[in-house]
Amino acid sequence: MQAVMNIEDLNAFLVQAFPQVADDFTIEEITASGIRVRLVVADRHLRPGGTVSGPSMFALADVSAYLAILARIGPKALTVTTNCSIDFMRKPEAGRDLLCDFRLLKLGRVLAVGDCVLMSDGSDRAVARASLTYSIPPE
Amino acid sequence: MQAVMNIEDLNAFLVQAFPQVADDFTIEEITASGIRVRLVVADRHLRPGGTVSGPSMFALADVSAYLAILARIGPKALTVTTNCSIDFMRKPEAGRDLLCDFRLLKLGRVLAVGDCVLMSDGSDRAVARASLTYSIPPE
Amino acid sequence: MQAVMNIEDLNAFLVQAFPQVADDFTIEEITASGIRVRLVVADRHLRPGGTVSGPSMFALADVSAYLAILARIGPKALTVTTNCSIDFMRKPEAGRDLLCDFRLLKLGRVLAVGDCVLMSDGSDRAVARASLTYSIPPE
Amino acid sequence: MQAVMNIEDLNAFLVQAFPQVADDFTIEEITASGIRVRLVVADRHLRPGGTVSGPSMFALADVSAYLAILARIGPKALTVTTNCSIDFMRKPEAGRDLLCDFRLLKLGRVLAVGDCVLMSDGSDRAVARASLTYSIPPE
Fold this sequence. Notes:
Shape of chain A: globular
CATH superfamily of chain A: Hotdog Thioesterase
Structural class of chain A: alpha+beta
CATH architecture of chain A: Roll
Helix content of chain A: 10-25%
Oligomer: homotetramer
Largest interface: A-B, 23 and 23 residues
Order of helices and strands of chain A: HEEHEEEE
Radius of gyration of chain A: 14 Å
Number of helices of chain A: 2
Number of domains of chain A: 1
Strand order of the largest sheet of chain A: 1-2-4-5-6-3
Number of strands of chain A: 6
């Protein structure tokens, strides 16, 4: 599960393939077993009350899984989510970015599986957790 | 599980509580066991290639569950998602709205559970399915 | 999604491939979109208090998915579960069999996805629901 | 999330409350954030081919969550599973016990949430992962 793309490669890919959301995310680190991604929280991610919305948290988990996989298999844009199970546990802290620590548990020929924990920047309490399966297109 | 809010009540609630997304959704019908909601697909919901994005489908499933529950318990805005498991099965058809048929399977004192199927308007093939659990705040 | 195995074929396959659990299950009907399977509840399926245990309900959902798929693709024993998300909603009624109504939502080349509702025999209230993904081995 | 029961307390509880499965499991360690539990694999846990069955892995994840929670809240037998999402990733190794590392991510008043990884004894490759939600009965 050695990375074949670095942060710059992944950012360039994101800007080119998903221009409409690339500004939302910052890749913090490609870790030994996965990736760490930041959701740069802006007004469009919030629910009334100032907490980050569920769809925004889903998007953070989903893009983290995608980037963790692409970092290891290269820029196969057609890699797609087949399943996500997400648990929302606590309200994110208002006015803070969200960080997602994703770990890849299996990178097979056809399927990749991993899970992640989301935390408000500066906190060590899990706001949400998610597990995701991606389908990798044949060569 | 008799409804205590009608479509007009739910729409008014949505506009007031979630003004930023209320335009995305149209409540089609409060059904015997749940609700049918339309995602009025616009550019902001799309991925490259013209298909509806995963977070937009998640948002449709999530809002449908929320509205199906509120229709039966009244406007308790603090009712929150605790879990969602979603399977993405086929690409939505380009240029079509998405319809979500949600059915409520349990409406307890503390937890509500249901599931839904998402289809492109005019098609009967499932694009995605999701099951959701909501936590209902005490009186 | 036409069936290529009938109830007798599936039962014979189950007895041969899974002799240790074949007695637990009865195939009630191969339906237009899936299958209906009965768990013949015995002492070994119970928790204290007389309700059916979680693992027994999981097993019923899992075998139903497996049989619904095999009925359509033939006896590929190596078809395996990759994901199951299950919600437990009510206690099963004591001293009753459990029935599982499974519907196949996608039968692809590589993945099959479906979901089911479990009810106590004679009741129409959902005891549990589950969604499952199976991986189908290449030819 | 300090433990209020130790391994001996939990074992005694398991033998008394779940005599029919208590022999299947050994509590290895109450960890800082969760628990580590062993499935003592016997013939009744196997599928043809000698690998551990899906329902047996589900049972290991489920009992681990249950014991991790009870270790912190005391012996409330009525604490029940409301959701489990489980991913099966690799075949367990034949003739090996399975170990489950469970971590508690939230222990609320009403709901507890955590996740786990299952590995064959002596291996560090994940065989399965699961996330579980438990409902805690009111006092």
